[in-house]
Amino acid sequence: MGEEDYYLELCERPVQFEKANPVNCVFFDEANKQVFAVRSGGATGVVVKGPDDRNPISFRMDDKGEVKCIKFSLENKILAVQRTSKTVVLPEKRSLKLLKSHNLNVNWYMYCPESAVILLSTTVLENVLQPFHFRAGTMSKLPKFEIELPAAPKSTKPSLSERDIAMATIYGQLYVLFLRHHSRTSNSTGAEVVLYHLPREGACKKMHILKLNRTGKFALNVVDNLVVVHHQDTETSVIFDLKLRGEFDGSVTFHHPVLPARSIQPYQIPIAGPAAVTSQSPVPCKLYSSSWIVFQPDIIISASQGYLWNLQVKLEPIVNLLPDKGRLMDFLLQRKECKMVILSVCSQMLSESDRASLPVIATVFDKLNHEYKKYLDAEQSYAMAVEAGQSRSSPLLKRPVRTQAVLDQSDVYTHVLSAFVEKKEMPHKFVIAVLMEYIRSLNQFQIAVQHYLHELVIKTLVQHNLFYMLHQFLQYHVLSDSKPLACLLLSLESFYPPAHQLSLDMLKRLSTANDEIVEVLLSKHQVLAALRFIRGIGGHDNISARKFLDAAKQTEDNMLFYTIFRFFEQRNQRLRGSPNFTPGEHCEEHVAFFKQIFGDQALMRPTTF
Amino acid sequence: MAAAAAGAGSGAWAAQEKQFPPALLSFFIYNPRFGPREGEEENKILFYHPNEVEKNEKIRNVGLCEAIVQFTRTFSPSKPAKSLHTQKNRQFFNEPEENFWMVMVVRNPIIEKQSKDGKPIIEYQEEELLDKVYSSVLQQCYSMYKLFNGTFLKAMEDGGVKLLKERLEKFFHRYLQTLHLQSCDLLDIFGGISFFPLDKMTYLKIQSFINRMEESLNIVKYTAFLYNDQLIWSGLEQDDMRILYKYLTTSLFPRHIEPELAGRDSPIRAEMPGNLQHYGRFLTGPLNLNDPDAKCRFPKIFVNTDDTYEELHLIVYKVTTIFPSHPTLDFCRRLDSIVGPQLTVLASDICEQFNINKRMSGSEKEPQFKFIYFNHMNLAEKSTVHMRKTPSVSLTSVHPDLMKILGDINSDFTRVDEDEEIIVKAMSDYWVVGKKSDRRELYVILNQKNANLIEVNEEVKKLCATQFNNIFFLD
Questions:
Q1: Is A174 helix (H, G, I), strand (E, B) or coil?
Q2: What burial letters (b/e) apply to B132-163, b meaning 16+ CB within 10 Å?
Q3: Omega before residue B319 within 30° of 0, cis
Q4: Shortest Cα distance, chain A CAs vs residue B447, angstroms
Q5: Test the B interface: residue of A431, A432, A440 with most B CBs within 10 Å
Q6: What CATH class is the domain B18-184?
Q7: Is there a contact between A505 and B205 if contact means CB atoms under 8 Å apart?
Q8: Angle (nearest 5°) at CA B81 between B78 and B84
């Protein structure tokens, strides 16, 4: 197993606290994610550390007996200490008010701070769970539901243990996770995690089953919307992704681990103590230790070593563990820090050594553009709503968040395609096929293709003298019209004469490039054609006579010059009642030239009425 | 703009008149270097049709051509003579490879009249044939030969004069029978390609399909994609595609269309179990893929002869056409399984587009005009004058005299480089308009009672605005 194989790791900067021992008790508060180290019942000090706290809170309190539980309220305002099973002490005097009461026989409870939902275990088998939701000072009762317990031998009484239940938010939805142990009577091949979806409204429903295919002791975490299942016996973990396609049997979806089981990456404990002693090599940390306690969503605490870690997923190793590129993309696109990894996957699949087949490349592009399009659509409907003035009336209107999964054309161009087309060893057929596949995918999702992608196609085709191919692409408007593209085509005329026609056609279709068309025609000495064009679109009253006369003179075709000159004399006559040019038109030189060639009498006479 | 009135149109023909269309008199290929000395003249002749002609006459005719070409060369060293007009016939000369000459002699059309005493009088119509049309036909003969046989020079290198003579004999013996000189017209000059109009997305899907197929079947060098008689994509270079297109649309496809129309050719694998049902099949190559003894012989073609000189096989799989280097039966099966199902899906996409196109054009009333459009740059050709191409005739819907005017206008266009417009008043109420703008040519035939020049000009402007609004076409 190589170094690069581990896809789970403990965070680099754990919360460190005094190890648990007979005089130091350690508590963890899931709501504030704080660790309390209580020395001698608080008499010699209480140290509170949270994951983001750079400055721990320390205080002392009187030792009034064994502390069973200790917590701060939100924002560390009120401290509560529980010393017996039925009393909670607030060190300062406060009054408490009973807001609401429900009568239930409760075996145990579980609270999920993220969703503010409490689960109460009821009934003899402990397996009927009653959820309550706290919101804005009220407490609402949600429909209760029953967890199906595995069949057990008749001698033992089955019951639902608190240890086998967890609550977590996955992809924005609250789930109750039940670790269902392998039972010999059933024909299942191992333990399973059963996910019950707990919606805000409506009944709880069994939705997913994660197949673990092994037995023994397990622990659950949820990291980056992935369910991580740790297995103590093998000291490995597996991950599940609810969004990856599983097997649906009509009511429940069965999932298998996304990747082969791997250990969490080995972790070195830095040596504490004065700097002089730290030259000693760090001590490897015992992973999957029986003293580990796991909290939701991603917390692992080793009380005996005095560490609190957040569990993290490493994406780079996964690239090589998941050979199916389509599935890999589905997986990566759901992860928070996915952008650079996805781009590297794209580069890799286009590399000489790891080249993927075109259908695979197409699938990857389609998946990228699907996400990209979703974001563009959300942006657009937001912009439209803002324009319509709905932003004030609807508080639900939120600017869509651009996640890392949104990879736009410029990302793909900059990080993948521009380097790819430069690779000399790549067969050009493949290069063009890839570029066309990306453009095909963008079009399929109705995303307007940026001109730099079209330019890349043109550049590649030109480099390999594939002008006829280029011509056909333009003929079918696969490369969309734009002024930059038309200019690029013009510059290709010396290598491929038809590029001139293609460019003019494009300018014509743009319908905003009439000046450019005139310039192109004049530069080709097609003065008459330029004039006919501008007259055709009704712009001939506003053009510079001097520009056309200059161009006509350059052709050294006297008859052409005559024609153009006469045209402008007639224009002058029509617009100003006199065929003469005004000084502002700077045509003196041309008038002189006209006289020299054709004589004074050839000048048009002002019409008199 | 130039206007001219042509006195074309001869009204009703006298009942006793008989007409004979132009016909091929002889066709020969020679190389003057092969028999420079007296007494060895026969060696110059590489091919002569009709073969029955007596040896000395062959030698005389070849010698005459040689002399004419030599003689006229003194007047125009760079552009040797292209044709010789005589009362009874016209000779066309073409030197496709250095010192290799091809000559085609066409008899002028004849009108046979009955004189008062009942004796037939034969009248040769010396001015009817258009040089450009038949020069193009002659050039096409060479291109077609080259497509299936490679260059003359290559045959010489491979097996000397003997091999070249064999190849010429084998090819032209059959090919000359398919020349239908009476129905050659402007379209033979253009040698254009009709493109199938298609939306961008379907086009990209086809691109993607072709790229994938070429990747998985790596002996496929090039692919051309057609729908019916219209080209959608060519991986081949333009000149090679041009002649292949001619072959496919005027020879191969028509030969296969008739059995299909008769319903004799239902898809062979509909009853095959375990196979995705699709409607692909080979037009060249094996008929039945399940027959292990099926012959896998595909026609050879030669492309890029000026450059890399590639010898390929032509596989025509309906609707795609591809060019692999060495196909086997196993390859055919793979091609069938990869291409067939996908192609069937694509074909239905394209078919949909076809129906849209048809609906759009069908929604308008039968227009008052007919036109031929040709773009020299991409060889795109569009004709509402021609009804359909068959191996035997190209049917036109207009009077031959009008077609001749089109040819005349085209000849005028060839003489100058600049953009031009020519309007001709023809017989009865016909007007013929030719426009040339930046390597594009448009010919319109209008039939409007009592129309004047200005109205005709307006009509053509309208036509350009509706049919050609997305290209830069000066009006």
A1: strand
A2: bbbbbbbbbbbbbbbbbbbbbebbbeeeeeee
A3: yes
A4: 26
A5: A440
A6: alpha beta
A7: no
A8: 175
Domain spans of chain B, in order of start: 18-184, 200-257+279-361, 369-468
Under 8 Å between Cβ of B101 and B29: yes
Distance from CA of B121 to the nearest CA of A (A): 52
Closest chain A residue by Cα to residue B235: A469
pLDDT averaged over every residue in chain B: 82
Q: Taking the CB of residue B245, how many other CB atoms lie within 10 A of it?
A: 24
Asked if B407 contacts B188 with a C-beta cutoff of 8 angstroms, the reply is no
Contacts of A414 (CB under 8 A, 6+ apart): none
Q: Which among B208, B438, B474 has the least Cβ separation from residue A436?
A: B208
**Which of B188, B9, B182, B7 lies closest to B108 in space, CA to CA?**
B182
Report the pLDDT value the prediction gives residue B267, as an integer from 0 to 100: 41
CB atoms A437 and B472 under 8 Å: no
Residue A104 has what pLDDT? 82
Query: Are residues A223 and A204 in contact, defined by beta-carbon separation less than 8 angstroms?
Result: no
Q: 3-class secondary structure for A309-331?
A: EEEEECCHHHHHHCCCHHHHHHH
What does the pLDDT read at residue A271? 60
Spatial distance between the Cα atoms of A14 and A306, rounded to a whole number of angstroms? 10
The rounded distance, in Å, linking the Cα atoms of A291 and A308 is 12
User: Is A358 in Cβ contact with B472 (below 8 Å)?
Assistant: no
- The CA-based diameter of chain B, rounded to the nearest angstrom, is 78
What is the predicted ipTM? 0.85
Residues of A in contact with B195 (CB under 8 A): 475
The whole-angstrom separation of Cα A25 and Cα A29 is 13
What are the DSSP calls for A264-309, one per residue? PPP-EEPPPS-GGGGGSPPEEP-TT-TTEEEETTTEEEETTTTEEE
- Concatenating the DSSP letter of every residue in B172-236 gives HHHHGGG--GGG--HHHHHT-BPBPP--HHHHHHHHHHHHHHHHHSTTEEEEEEEETTEEEEE-S
* Model confidence, pTM: 0.84
3-state secondary structure of A12: coil
178-217 in chain B: CB under 8 A from chain A: 195, 198, 200-201, 203-205, 207-208, 211-212, 214-216
Query: In angstroms, how far apart are the furthest CA atoms of chain A?
Result: 128
Which residues of chain B register pLDDT less than 70?
Answer: 1-16, 257-281, 286-296, 319-326, 360-367, 388-395, 474-475
CATH no. for B200-257+279-361: 3.30.450
Within chain A, which residues score under 70 in pLDDT? 1-4, 41, 53-54, 85-87, 89-94, 152-155, 183-188, 270-281, 390-396, 607-609
Half-sphere exposure of A29 (CA within 13 A, CB side): 23
CA distance B335 to B283: 13
Give yes or no for a contact between B110 and B87, defined as CB atoms under 8 angstroms apart: no
Compute the nearest-CA separation of B70 from chain A (Å).
34
Please tell me the distance in Å from A429's CA to the nearest CA on chain B: 8
Instruction: Please tell us whether the domain made up of B369-468 is placed in CATH 1.20.120.
Output: no
> What is the structure's pLDDT at A223?
93
**Residue B425 to residue B405: CA distance in whole angstroms:** 10
* CB proximity list for B380: less than 8 A, separation 6 or greater: A475, B192, B193, B194, B195, B373, B374
